[in-house]
Design brief:
CATH superfamily of the largest domain: Nucleoside Triphosphate Pyrophosphohydrolase
Number of domains: 2
CATH class of the largest domain: Alpha Beta
Shape: globular
Order of helices and strands: HHEEHEEHEEHEEEEHHEEEHHH
Distance between the termini: 51 Å
Largest sheet: 7 strands, mixed
Strand content: 25-35%
Helix content: 25-40%
Oligomer: single chain
CATH topology of the largest domain: Nucleoside Triphosphate Pyrophosphohydrolase
Structural class: alpha+beta
């Protein structure tokens, strides 16, 4: 009987290097465990760091103890009333310039909730979401070309506009965004792909769900916890597709060979090249698509670290 020895696919990324990158982003689990609970209508919906607790504690609608920041019942009996009362506080903090994360005001509605399908306890400005440490949900799409061997050959990377309020000038994936209150993942990523990269409807219809990653980190100001759950998507494109910056959030796009993508992500631990959670999303792509060998030391740890927070 003739047995054919099949060549192993080329492996491009080091599991340990990627693990360092993912862990650098997933670095706030201890702080989250010791943070104050954020309680609305008797339910814990978030975790509040000390600076944020001090800022919120200046307002009568919040009771702050060593264990919790509680929205008082007299702030409102309905979602609309509670959200209005909390929004007035957020707007006041923004006006006085005392909370740095509010400098990134987006005019986007964010649902404070215990899980994706849970009813919202509050709806607030997205830039203020970190004040309350509630789970946040986003969508990210990796767009790639395919080689003759059927494996991803190159990936489209975006360079964030220098005018962006967060992580200006860093590398990003083709399109991504946080989900506003009421959005669903598939519709959200198709919308982001059209708005940020000019992906036409027919190609956007080929976007495929690919799972997700989750982590607990700090925001760039140090005031807030990022308890993020990111839905990930893949999009295989042909040589005839060239993304274009539509809404001004991207400075340029570059089609980058996968070996180079892997090297750039590996460098992220010591040199910030990507928006941090984008490096995590691409590390997950590299793992899923066979660019990390299962024989590599750190493979299983990387697999676990990519989903080392609550997924719900």
């Amino acid at each position: 009987m003739l047995t054919l020895a099949l060549a192993a696919p080329p492996i491009s990324a080091c599991a340990r290097a990627l693990l360092d990158v993912v862990r650098a982003n997933n670095n706030a689990a201890t702080a989250a465990a010791s943070a104050r609970a954020f309680v609305v209508d008797g339910t814990t919906v978030g975790r509040v760091l000390p600076k944020s607790a001090a800022a919120l504690g200046r307002y009568a609608i919040f009771d702050v103890s060593e264990e919790a920041v509680t929205l008082r019942g007299d702030a409102g009996a309905t979602l609309e009333e509670r959200s209005k009362a909390v929004t007035e506080v957020i707007c006041d903090l923004r006006a006085e310039g005392s909370v740095p994360m509010l400098d990134g005001w987006r005019d986007e509605a964010f649902a404070v909730r215990t899980s994706f399908f849970a009813p919202p306890s509050l709806v607030v400005e997205r830039a203020a979401a970190g004040l309350f440490g509630a789970p946040a949900y986003g969508v990210f799409v990796n767009c790639y070309t395919e080689g003759a061997d059927g494996r991803p050959a190159s990936m489209w990377l975006a360079r964030r506009a220098k005018s962006k309020p967060t992580w200006p000038g860093l590398l990003d994936c083709l399109a991504a965004g946080g989900m506003a209150a009421g959005e669903m993942p598939l519709g959200a990523i198709r919308k982001e792909a059209a708005e940020e990269a000019g992906v036409p409807p027919r190609l956007a219809g080929a976007i495929q769900p690919a799972g997700g990653v989750c982590y607990t980190g700090f925001d760039e100001t140090g005031w807030a916890l990022k308890r993020d759950v990111l839905y990930t998507f893949d999009l295989r494109c042909g040589d005839d597709f060239v993304p274009r910056a539509v809404d001004g959030e991207v400075e340029e796009f570059s089609l980058t060979p996968m070996d180079e993508v892997a090297r750039l992500v590996e460098r992220q631990a010591g040199e910030r090249l990507f928006k941090p959670n984008v490096a995590v999303v691409i590390a997950d792509f590299l793992l899923r698509r066979g660019f990390v060998s299962p024989d590599d030391d750190g493979y299983l740890e990387l697999l676990a670290e990519l989903r080392n927070a609550e997924l719900r």
